[in-house]
Each structure stands twice: as C-alpha cells, then as structure tokens.
User: What shape does this take?
Amino acid sequence: MTEHVRVVEVGPRDGLQNEREIVPTDAKVELIRRLVAAGYEDIEVTSFVRPRWIPQLADASDVLSALRGVQGATFWALVPNERGLERALDAGLSGVATFMSASETHNLKNVNRTIRESLGALREVIGTAVAEGLRVRAYVSTVFGCPYEGAVSVERAVEIAAALREMGAEQISLGDTTGMANPRQVGEVIAAMHAGGLPLSSLAMHMHDTQGAALANVLAGLQAGVRTFDASIAGLGGCPYAPGASGNAASEDLVNMLNNMGYQTGIDLDRLCSAGEFIAEALGRELPGRYHKYWLGARARREARTA
Amino acid sequence: MTEHVRVVEVGPRDGLQNEREIVPTDAKVELIRRLVAAGYEDIEVTSFVRPRWIPQLADASDVLSALRGVQGATFWALVPNERGLERALDAGLSGVATFMSASETHNLKNVNRTIRESLGALREVIGTAVAEGLRVRAYVSTVFGCPYEGAVSVERAVEIAAALREMGAEQISLGDTTGMANPRQVGEVIAAMHAGGLPLSSLAMHMHDTQGAALANVLAGLQAGVRTFDASIAGLGGCPYAPGASGNAASEDLVNMLNNMGYQTGIDLDRLCSAGEFIAEALGRELPGRYHKYWLGARARREARTA
Assistant: This one.
C-alpha cells in the first residue's frame, strides 16, 4: 500500500505576496482552478492582511467569491487578527491560517508584537475561528533559525506550537523562513515536537529553498514521520531577506520527488507543470522551480527536434 | 569528533563544458587558484577529449601548465581514451577521470561504443594510467536513470562499477546524469554497490539538480555511508537534455548543508562564494546555485542598508 503525503499549495498566497508584478484577479482564479484540477486538496488562496500591506492580495474577497462553487479542495487564507478573520468569514472561507514567529525579533518586525502578545491575540482569533466552524492551521515562522537572531530555541518553538494546538489549530506548520534549516536539525526539531506532545499528524513543514536544502529537509521530515509539506508552484515568490534568492520549496520538485519515492500525493505532475507555466506567463518572468524549468526545457527540446 | 566529507569540485570541467561563452584560460586558472585557496583537495580542472568536441576545454594543456607549482590540491582531468591519457601525462597531471554510462543507449550516443567496448577500452586506459603512477577516478553515468531508456538495471551498474574498480580505479563516481534519482533509490543503489563488493569509501556520488532533488539525494547517500560528493561551483553548467534546466549540484549549497549538519569539509564557504561570484562575472551570466544567489542577495541588501 502506498503511503499518502499531503502537499499544501501556498503559491497563490505565500508565493504571489512576494511577487512585485500585480497579477489580475482573473489570472489568480484561473491558477487556483488549475491547481484544483491538478488534484490538490489544500490550497492557500489569499490573505486577509490589510490591503495596504500587501497590495498583491488586496483582491482577497474577489478571489474567494470567484471560487464559490469550485469543489474538491479546501481553500485556506491567511488571517492576521480578528478583523482579518471577520473578512474571511464574510467571504465564506472554510479554513484560515494564522501566523507568528518563534523568535522575538522576527515576530516584532513582522507583526509588531512580542511572542507573548501574539499568543494572546491568536488565542482569541483561533478560538473564534473554531467556534465559527472553521478549520485552522497555525504557522510558526523562524523555527529553524532567525535572520536577525540566528539560532532559535527548540524548547521555545515547541512551547509555541503546543500552545497553538491547544488553542484549537488542527495543524502547526513549522516555517524555515530563510531556508536556514539542515536535515540533522529537522530530525531533532520534529523529535522535540513529538516529545512535547504534538502528534506527528498535527505537524506540517513549510521549507524555503533559499540556501538550496529545502528538499533535503523535506526528506529528513519524511524520515521523522511528518506527512504534510507546504510548497509553492514553480517556486513562486522569493526571499524578502536576499533579493534574487529563492523562496518557497517548489511544488513540482516536491511532488516529483515524492512520486519517485513511491508516495502518493494525488497530484498530477503534468497538470501541475502546466499550471506553473500559466502563472509564469501571467507574471511575465522566469520562475525558479527546478522541475518547472526542466519540464519547459524538455518540451522545448522535443519541439525543436520535431520542427 | 567531526566526520570528514570530501567534496570534489567539477565546475572547471563539467560545469564549464556546458557553458556556451568561452572563458579565457587566465580566468579558468584564476578560478582554480581560488578554489584551491578555498580549501579544496580535489578539483577536476579540464578535459582531454578532442578539442573539436568541446571547444571550451581546448586549452587543457595551457590550463595545466599555468597551474604547475600550485600546491595543496590534486588536479584531475577527464580522459576519454589512450590519446587523451597521453596528453594528460604530457601535461604532468596526477589524476585522471574516465567515463562511460550504465545504459547502452546513452553510452552509444555519448562515446559511440557499446558498454562492452567501453569496458575493454577503459581496461587499457586505466591500466596504463595506474602503471604510470596516476590516480584514477571512473565515472559511471546514468546509474539512476537514462534519458533514453528510463530505468537502468542496478545489477548492471554494480557489475560495471566493480569492473572499473578491479581495473584499478580508486573511486567510482556514480552519476545521475539528468537528475532522475530519488532518495529511496539512492539508498538501494548504494546498498547494492556495497553488497557487490564495492567498499563505501570507493564510491562517490555525482548528482545533478535537474529535477531539484540533488541535495536530498546527497542526504540519502550520506545516510547510506557515502562520503565523497562531486559538485560544481554556483551550479555552473546546465543540462544538455533540457535547455535552461539546472545541471550539477551547486558546491555552495552542498558545502553549506554539510557544514550545518556538522560535517567537516575543509572548504571555506565565504571564499567559495567569492570564487562563484568571480566565475559568474567571467561568464557574464547569472548562475543557478541557490546559496550563490542567496549570498549575493544578502550582500546587496547589506550594502543597500548602509548606503
């Protein structure tokens, strides 16, 4: 029996939010439809942060209303606070994702709150979301290292993850915000999370490929028992801490590796690659995903041969 | 005690041979000097194939004579046959690398010989090289999959590797020519090699990042006991089978991951990154290495902040 691994597509939110070129709402909706058609069961489609902060995602409500009636996947959106949650509820969403950091400095710079303040605020947000019948994922950023502080306390990260889960988040997505993780550390962090009372099924890994080790870290996570991984189509997005550097792990790379290893993802790689080509064209730029480039290049070579 | 992992730099040969822009001999020599200064003990510096085949490396003898007197590293060169070996001996080389494929079609297309013919010819080349006091590495390409045939017989690959070792090659470098390997397969192949009589210390892995899994495959190799990995600075080179796609695993990505995992490589990452910047400028193009881009981007950001 083949084992299932869940891939959560975050390209339309985490990917696009780092792209300068504003993508028309129609193109975002088309991308998401194609991702559903490729077989995704979980897609993070937008964010309800203040439109002024992330103009790319200012059309969150429009995207969601255009998706009404699209079946087959759970659509998730990022919510920073109670106000974001209200907008998400108005939009008829079924899943929300909250976020905070495991390092004090990154949390302060990102959400202008201490970790203690974030935990207090999220208790309200998650509590309300769960009471309203929403599913909740909670991101914890900088678990594997902080661009400001360097090493991050594993004990602290475990405490935060456990607190978020106790508040009602069904899954904690451990973020490697600037790709600082290494496979040995991943094994240690996952073991510490498990020892700290978090079931492996409640954990996801959200790895960035900034330093090139995203898939190696995913492999270490698989070996440690994690079965949910976030990824961004064609490696959409980038790293706000290093211009030109890679951001999220690329979905095609991840799905291809999982397929080749015999895991079952339910995602059609060829359809996924077509969706990657679609968003690359919509953005009018080359995207960094390895398999994405390989797929485009292999097709170009085939076409040159038959021309 | 920290464990040593040997990284063999193949950028000046395997990387450059796939770059269209001809790099002046001086720049190649400067690159190699910088790689030695960064701490490499093994550098594949050029190739003695017919100059007409690979114009980029037509200056092989000049590169080697300019490197005479440079201490601290073993310089390796690719030799296809007895004639190449003679040129390498004349150039005063201390190490040569031979090559053949584990799949019949790739071997025919690449060297115009059957596998049996290649083994016969290499028996002569390796025998002569060893008799002349040279060290020999032997590449076996397409071990993890063939762009023409698909799956490749592990038994066949083991037989070839064992034969090459028996001929006198001190190390067999298992090539993943178009990045088709996956971590599960790597574990199986290495175990089969070991069971087939090849000591783990006689094995190297030469992984390509075409499909994005190079470092994950390296991790699987480390876990299986391999301690030598080939890599190309800044991901120099590309994939001849898919225009625009990635080629060799990038050295900076590999060294950074190994450092972070607590392995000792003897290579100074910052000097390595500087050497990568040097060759990117010499080529006048952006190179694909992740850590290379991250390092350049992080510096640009620092400079923008202090400006």
Remarks:
- Chain A has one domain: 6-306.
